[in-house]
Structures are given as structure tokens and as C-alpha cells.
Amino acid sequence: MRPLAAIALAVLVLAGCGGNPNAPSRNLREDDQRWVEGALPRAEILPEGWTGTADDRGAALDDCEALDRSDLELTGEAVASVELGETLAAIAGTQLFADEEDARAFVAEPSDEELTACLEEELAETFGDEERGAAVDGLAFVPSAPPDAGESARAATGEGTYTVGETRSALALEAMYVQRERAVLTLVTAALDEEFPEDVRDTLLADFEERTQEKPPP
What's the Cα-to-Cα distance from 158 to each of 123, 136, 144, rounded to whole Å? Predict the structure, then answer.
């Protein structure tokens, strides 16, 4: 079974090259791009055995049909994944918007129904892999308590079934959005047939918090 993070990162990188009419417009700036790449999770914060991969071409989950965000403008974006073996993974996307109002709107404005529908659409696509016969079935999200981070935050949890050939596994997902000034972190954790470690999730959130406070968005 190919690691979840490898599948997800490949799909998100491809998504960054797309032109979905519901996605924010892209007007990437050199300084902002350097900032978002520098705000991705650092390898040294990860527990022993975890690995990380970053890609400055990546996109966060922002181009679903269920939610129109075309009135927002992005000026920087990058994505990274971390993983342990083939069953535990997290995707961290950092974005800079044209202004704080756009960043806050990205996180706070969608209704619960819009947000969960968007996550169901995007993450079923992200972790599916038609060429390998992998699919996510029955994925359903519900709102959950947001992390105590940033100036605004949202969260939702999801469950579904991850199928590769004849192998079926329970897939547990958690999605979190954290906004500080004009920056947004989108963090998604994924686990097959087990729970994602809360300490790793909290470390990833805390790292973004610390770094955005030490070096605020330009």
C-alpha cells in the first residue's frame, strides 16, 4: 500500500496547477512565497520515525465545487506532508492572502454545511487514486471544536472507508484551519485503522503558531 501522504501530496501538487473557477485567484509574490515555504512544518519537530516532504507548488484544499471562494486572492502557497509508515499521515498547507480580510473570510465565512461538503469532496479526491484502484467511500464530515490557535479557527472530523483492491480500511480524518493576520494553515490528519497521535497533531499546530508569531506575515 502506497503511503497516504505520498498519494495526497501528489494530488495537491497537481491541484495547484489547476484553474477551478471556485478557487481563489492566484497572484503569487516572491516575498510571500518565501514566507509560506518557511512556515511549513520543520523536520526537527517530528518524533523519531516520522518523515516529511515539502513542495512549493502545492495547493491547499480550496477548489471544491461545494464552496465558491473565487472572490479571494492568494499571494503565496506551499504544502508539506509528514508520515509514519503507510497508515499515518498529515498534510499541512500554508497560504498567504492579499489581506487579512480575505484570510479571515477563507476560514470563518463558510457555513458548517458548506465546509463539510467541501471537505468530503476534496479529501475523497485527494486520497483516492484511480490508477491504483484506490478509493475513499462513504466519507462524511461533522464540525468539531476548533483548535485554540490563531485569530480564527475551524475544525471538522471525518470517517470513511479506504479501499485498495480487496483491502478495506477504516479511514479517520481531521481537518483544521487556523488564521493569523493574512496567513492560513490548513492541517489535515489521516489514519488507517488507528487514531492519529494527538501529540503530533498538536506539535504541528504549535509550530505554525510559534513561527507566525516569531516572524509575522510580510
Answer: 10, 11, 10
Beta strands in the chain (DSSP E): 25-26, 51-55, 73-84, 88-97, 134-143, 152-164, 167-180, 183-192
Q: Which of 33-47, 57-71, 183-197 has the lowest mean pLDDT?
A: 57-71
d(CA 156, CA 121): 14
Residue 101's contacts (CB-CB under 8 Å, 6 or more residues apart) are none
Q: Where are the alpha helices (DSSP H) in the chain?
A: 4-15, 30-38, 100-108, 112-127, 198-214
**Beta-sheet pairing, 73-84 with 51-55:** antiparallel
Q: What angle do CA 173, 78, 190 make, to 5 degrees?
A: 15
pLDDT in tens, 113-145: 999 999 999 888 888 877 777 888 999 999 999
Nearest to 60 by CA among 43, 42, 40: 40
Give pLDDT tens digits for 83-104: 898 889 898 889 999 999 999 9
* Owner of C-alpha cell 477548489: 63
Look-up: residue for cell 477504516? 170
- What does pTM read for this prediction? 0.92
